[in-house]
Specification:
Layout (H helix, E strand, L loop, with lengths): L8 H25 L9 H10 L4 H10 L9 E2 L2 E2 L1 H13 L7 H6 L1 E3 L10 E4 L8 E7 L2 E6 L3 E6 L3 H4 L2 E7 L1
Antiparallel strand pairs: 1-2, 3-8, 4-5, 4-8, 5-6, 6-7
GO molecular function: cysteine-type peptidase activity
InterPro entries: Murein_DD/LD_carboxypeptidase, NLP_P60_dom, Papain-like_cys_pep_sf
Pfam families: NLPC_P60
């Protein structure tokens, strides 16, 4: 006597489950072989490279700790910070340099340097609203700087963007 289960509900369920098990195993094994890459020419990838290439690990930690903190005029803590407050705290904590609290006064302490000669920790100054300095950032490397943006908070940005090149008025190191 032979037992055949070819047409029973048990056999159909077993074959269906076996099919799904093989399909899931195949799918999972194929996902493990895919390589996900980030286009290295994106702004985010370039900013990440600038951070990865920092010589000072304490600077790296400082920036990552503050990244995303919202902008607040006159602010000087994680509840909100402005550009000159961010530069003030960074220069003091990382380099032991005490800057004035206002970006215009900070610019007066800086010895001018061409952009091509900037080094990690140098300052970059902008004038968005006329002739006077009204914004400051800290140079990192490869054309990137960190600053407290009025719209995006503390962020690493590309100094080579035309929006910054048009309003860049001074750059250099603290005397």
């Amino acid at each position: 006597m032979q037992l055949t289960l070819n047409h029973t509900p048990f056999t159909v369920r077993l074959k269906t489950n076996l099919f799904f098990l093989v399909a899931i195993i195949f799918f999972l094994s194929s996902c493990g072989t895919r390589k996900y890459t980030v286009k290295s020419d994106t702004k985010a990838a370039k900013a990440a490279d600038a951070m990865a290439n920092l010589q000072s690990k304490s600077l790296y930690r400082f920036i990552t700790d503050w990244t995303g903190v919202k902008y607040r005029f006159g602010g000087l803590d994680k509840g909100g910070i402005d550009c000159s407050g961010f530069a003030f705290l960074l220069e003091k904590e990382i380099y032991g340099v005490t800057l004035p609290r206002i970006s215009r006064d900070q610019a007066n302490m800086v010895k001018h340097k061409n952009i091509e000669r900037l080094k990690e920790g140098d300052l970059v100054f902008f004038s968005f609203g006329g002739n006077d300095v009204d914004h400051v950032g800290v140079y990192l490397n490869n054309g990137f700087f960190v600053h407290a943006s009025t719209t995006r908070g503390v962020i690493v940005d590309d100094l080579n963007l035309p929006a910054y090149q048009r309003v860049l008025v001074k750059s250099g190191s603290v005397n």
